Each structure stands twice: as C-alpha cells, then as structure tokens.
Amino acid sequence: MKRTISLLLALAFCLSLSALRAEAASGYALPERLDGCENIFLSYTFNCSNWSSGRRTKASYKPLVGYYDTEGTLRDTFFDTFLFLPCVTSTPSGGKTYRDNENPANLSDWRMFIDDVFLDGYNIDALNEAVGEMKATLGTSYTDYKTRVFLSCMYPVKTQTQFGDLNGDGVSEDFTRLADRLAAIEWMLDEQLDRFEAGGYEHLELVGFYWFEEDFAGGDPHELELVTHFNDYAHEAGLKTIWIPYNGAQGYDRWAEFGFDVACYQPNYMFNANTAESLLTYTCEAAERLGMCVEIEASGSVLQSAEYYNRYMDYLRVCSALGAGDAIKMYYNEGVDGVFYNAYRSNDPVVRRVYDLTYKYAKGTLQSGDCAHYPVRKPADEYDVVSLGKAYTASAPYTNSTQGYANVSGAELTDGIFGATPYGTEWHPFHRSLAESDGCFRIDLDLGAVYDNLRYFSLELESNTGAGIGLPASVEYLVSVDGTSYTPAGRVDSFEDFTLVNPTAELLLSRSITGRYVRVRIVPGTQNFVFASELSVGTLPESDYDDGGTYRNAALGRPYAASAPYTDSTQGYADVSGRELTDGVYGGANVLSTRWHAFHTSMLTNGRFEVTVDLGAPTTNLSRFAMEFCLADDCSIALPPLVTFSVSADGEYYVTAGSVVPKLRDGVLYEALLDTDALTGRYVRAVFAPGRGHFVFASEFYAGRTETPLPARLTTADGASLTLDISSRICTSPLGLTAKALQRQLAQPVTLLDASGAELPPDALAGTGCTMEYRENGDVVCRYTVAAAGDVNGDAKLTASDYLLVKRIVLGLDEKDPLRTAAGDLSGDAKLTAGDYLLLKRLVLRL
Predict the structure, then answer these.
(1) Which of 193, 319, 427, 704 could be disulfide-bonded to 531 (CB atoms 3.0-4.6 Å)?
(2) How far is CA 723 from CA 33, 175, 518, 622, 680, in A?
C-alpha cells in the first residue's frame, strides 16, 4: 500500500479529528467506534526466550472465542476481537521488541515477529480454526459470524542506523532519517495486510492496527509525525487504529489529536500491591471524561494469590459500577497459556470464577454481588507478629542446586517475605538427607524477650510433588522461657490450603502461653524435600477496650453459651468454632468472615439473643463491658436496639450492670460499650433483641476488670439515709420515702421506675422493687433496685403480709433472693432469720 497524502485528505482528516474530539468528550468509547468490536483479547506472540509462551494453539483459543460452562459445554461466544502483539522481550538480533534506544530491533526481528503471528497451526491460523469449530457447534445462526482481528505496528527506533533493506535497493534504512522511519511503518502495515489476505481466513475479519508503544516519546522531535503517519496510513486503507497508554503516560490525553480511533487507558492497579482501589475509580473517570475505554488487567498472580485475586475482582466490580463495562473493553492476561485459559481449565471453583466472571463482565450480565473477595489470611491481620526479623537456627538447608533456593541467607524464615515462587530465595529447603538424628527437621527461634500472651504459630509450606517437595507429616510447636525446658504448645497434622495461598501449618491457641524461645519440630512426609518460608509467631494484640492497661479482659479465652448461630450458608461466618466471641479477635471490616457469631431471628430465645460467659472463678472489679456489632443493610444484618449486661455469682441470680445502645465506631463497626461501677461475679451475660434485619452479627465479648476499684459513678449525698451496695446493685432505703425524697439523697440525678418500667411520679412512694437508673450520654450505666426496709412484698407499705412472707422464706416455703433479704433484714446481719420475722411483726403490730 503506497500513497501520498493530498491536501484534500489532510483537510478531511482535520475535520474528522474535530468530530472525534467532540465525541471524546461525550463519554466512554463505545463499540460503534470500532465497527462493533467490544471485547478485545490481547493475544501475545513472539517470545524469543520462550517460544511456547507466544504461540497459542487452536485448543487454547477455543475457550476464548467461545464460553464453555463447567460441564464443558459450549454456551456462547466470548471474546469477539483478538489483538496480536509481540511480547515485551529481547529479539534474536539483541534488540528489543519495544522502543529501546540502546537496543533497537532491526528488519530481521520485524520479519520474525510477523512470521510468528502467521505461523502455521498457531496464533492467527489457530484462531481461525477455533472460530470455525465454534460456529459449527453453535449452529446455522452463526454462519456469518466472524471474529475480528487487530495487528500491531512495531516502533522504528531513532537510534537504529542499520535497520535493513526494505525496498530492495541495496541500501539499509537509517532511522536517523524521518523518511526511512515512515517507510518502515508503511512496510510493516503492508506486509501484514498482504499476509492476512493471502491466508484466506474465512472466519476472521481484519479491523485495524495497534500502535505498540504505550506512551508518547516527547523527546523525539519526529514522534508526532510518526504517530499521525501510522494513523493516516491505516485509515486510508479503511482500517481502524487503537492505542493502550499506561496510567499517566505522556500524551495519553492527546490520543484524539494523534489520530487514533480509540485509546484504552491502563489502570495498572494489578501490578503494584501498594496501589489503592481508588486508582480504578480515577482511571474510569478519566477514561469517561476523555472518551477512552478501560483495560482489564490480570497477572498470573490472580490465580495464585488471594490478594491479587481480590484485585481482579475489584477491576470487574468497579469498572462495571462506573459504566466502563458498557464500553469497549480490552483484556490483558499475560502470554500463553494466560490467566483466562488457566482459570477455565482449573478444577478449583474459586479459580474457575475468574473465567466465568470475566465472561459475565464481557456480556454485561455481571451483578454487584458476584465479585466477592476471597478471604486473605495474614497473621498480622489478627495478631501482633513478634517473630519478624528475629534470629533463629535451623536444620541445614539443601544447597546443592542451581535453583534460587540454593542462596540461603539464614533469614528466610523470619524476613516477612512469604512464598511467591516455586524455587525462590524466600524458601528454606529442608532435605531428608540433612535431617536431625531423630529424622526430623528443627527450627529454634529466639523472640528476644519473654511474651506472656503467645497465641498464634504458623509455618508456610510448599507442595510440589513433581519436584519432590511435599508436605510434612506433622509440625509441632514448643515454647520455652529459658531455652532449655520446652513445653508443647500444639501439633498440626493437617495443613490449611486456602486455595490462593500456600499451605500453612497454623496453630491457634484459645488461651495465651508464655515464652521467649519457640522450637518447631517438622516430621518429614513422603517426599524428600520440605520447603518452608515464613515462620510467624503472634501475640494477641491489646484491645482498644484495655484503655492502655487500665482494664484486663476477664472473658478472653473463656467458654460461653450463646443463642445458636446461623450456619446454613456457604459464607465464612458459617464456620463456627465456638470461640468467636471470646478469642480476642475482633470482627474488622469483613462482615462475612469467621470472626463473627451470626445470630438469626429463627434462633431467638424468648424473643431475644443471649450470650453468657463463664469467667471460671469469682472475679472482682468488673466495671467495663463491651460487644462489637456490624451493620450491613444489604445483607439484612442489623444492630440490636439495646444491649443489657448483667453479672451473676452463681449463674442463677443476675445483677444488671447497665444497658447501652450500640454506637458507631468505624465504618460498618458498632460497639455496645458500658462503663459502670465495679461488680463481682463469675458469670457475665449480654441480652439483646434483634434489630430491623434478620441477622445480628457480634464479634467480641469484653468483660474488663481493674486491679483496684475505680471511683463509683453513683454515690449518696452527704447525710443520706440510703445505702448503695455496688456488688448487688441494691439501694437499701427507709420505708416511706417518696421518689422525690429518694432522689435528693443521691449526689447524681437518677430516674425512678416502678416494676412495670413506668417512671414514678415525684410524690409516689418508692417501695421495694423500684429501680433507679443513672445515665451518661443517654446510656444506663448504673441501675439499682430499691429495697425499702420492711417492704418485703414490694407494695410500698408495712403490713402483715410482709412478716408472713419473711416467715415463709425462713421456713423454706418461699423463694429467697438478695432483694427480699435486703428489705427484710431489720437486724442488719445480711440474712433473713426468725429474728427478722419477729422484729417485722412487732413493727406491724406496733408492739
């Protein structure tokens, strides 16, 4: 294809450019811009260091041109367009496939790239066959269907002075001359057009060309002429042009000025673990503003790492929500075989979802709830890791190898670098030939100080039986204070494999243990090698409720009874351990994780939920109570309207500590926090009703005690005739006091309620059974029950029924409780006896 741009053509181009700029400001690039191309798969070719990673066969194109369900049945078309481009690699001449002024490619490299694209049985040829088979399977309605194709134009690097002879005149092109660079662009497009036409690909349609560079080389004085010439030349042939600049690339916002039909903006969120999800939002908003589309990016880590799997879910979710999914979409997924093909082949349903959800995104059927994150298990999320960077000794590593694991630094197990490669330097390779005398492998770790709250132990492992690397038979953890005498902490015989992370010998303790030295004893399995990467030892982090050490959580690690959890679900919260509420691990932002106890309205007890913790022994100075809740309206997870805490010495009679309304703590997290006057007891209970949803999700139950009692919140006024018993929460008062008179005898304002919960009028008598509530910030932080002297039956009077009730209690014919005892104990010995009966009878009879 040869041509000279006439003035008329130049004017026509300027007019079309103005129209394109106007269109560019109107929203995302829609498929109409590329004659209907909507889902463009980047099909990498030409990898000189590994030819197979650039040569895709018919078999590996089939699940890309068509969508296959989990039963292997072809259901629909998938990617409708394929872009053939070279891998970013070195060329046979020593150059680079991309713009590299130090190592420019030459004509032989360009020819080899084109040969690779059109290689018999691979790439374009294989794609054509795969599309033909798909059409035959889908039926006659697809007879006229064709998959679209984009080819690539490599870059004529200005430092190449001996490119090669393009036109057969015996003179090598010199790219220091602009004319030779422009001629090279024309040759590359012409050569591929000729090859495509000669191929007779009946199931394919060539749509256009891709400019391979991802930015605009502003330092090259001829860059604008190169780019516009590429676009002009392709357009004159009736073809489209596309460009895929990286995020923030020079000139990305000038794509229309350069003459491209469509530019696709790279988010680059996939490739840097430190980037925030907001980068996706920024990219989508910029693309929409500039009339571009957005590239979906998937690296191989998506199928190996939960963190990167979740990043891919972020791509699909954010791009779909912000409208980029309704526009043209281009998909990066590495070279052959690629992420999507490997996901299609996987038997793991989690990995397979990458293929299925990409199809749904491509077809516009993705739902907001489809892109759930996979749980990322990291010790630092729940525990304070104290092993990081600490010194250790271990059984000798196997180093007779040229692999990366031969480079043993002695820091692999505590350097914070988890396993990411099969044989990298992050692994410590144990080999059976170097085992200890007992046939096991050993790690001895010095934490540098004694810790009294060790709760977490884990050792990351590798499983690759093809390389002789197997899982151990068991991993045992032992702890010592002095490095001599060791106590077993626990043994792991089965290894957690979280699908997207490496297997882990993970030990979680329900109670803390003390130690400075940790020994790991590894019993080899069936293979010669055991590869270990990171040894993590963690302490339970200090709770925010500890208030800098003022309180200690008496409920930590203690057993409890609770309303039955809801477990009829595939979600994480269905995996109930029975420790969720006292394991010291707070819920966090993941509302569907195993950290939560899921209360459901189908499991109510007398219309409410209950949690009762056994502290194991009578505990004094209990003055802080808390529970963590979460709110997620879209999951029908609601907050309880009120949480009431109470304490009991015997598990039968409970003293109310107070009632609080859950308040926002952070994001979706709420806390019911009660600070009250010190109580003593063995059992602590929380009672709450359901909210407006079906669920109440609770995480941690905190029962804080202090070493010494804190100042009381509710006190009597000077000269008062009242007595406040903090431990029983009973206010003993003279008989005959009105509500107003009783309130005056307290140093803080209180509300008096009758037995039904109604507020007492000021002139009403405050009899036994009335309650006093002291509030702070709207919450009831202290609640006392009135015991009016002599008023045993609670009618606010002194009558024969009172002394007769005392008689029945003394004789064991009626129930005795602390409130009746306080009201009837006229002798002051804290007991109900016959003497109290006689005293009360004399008062009634006025003897």
Answers:
(1) 427
(2) 85, 100, 54, 20, 18
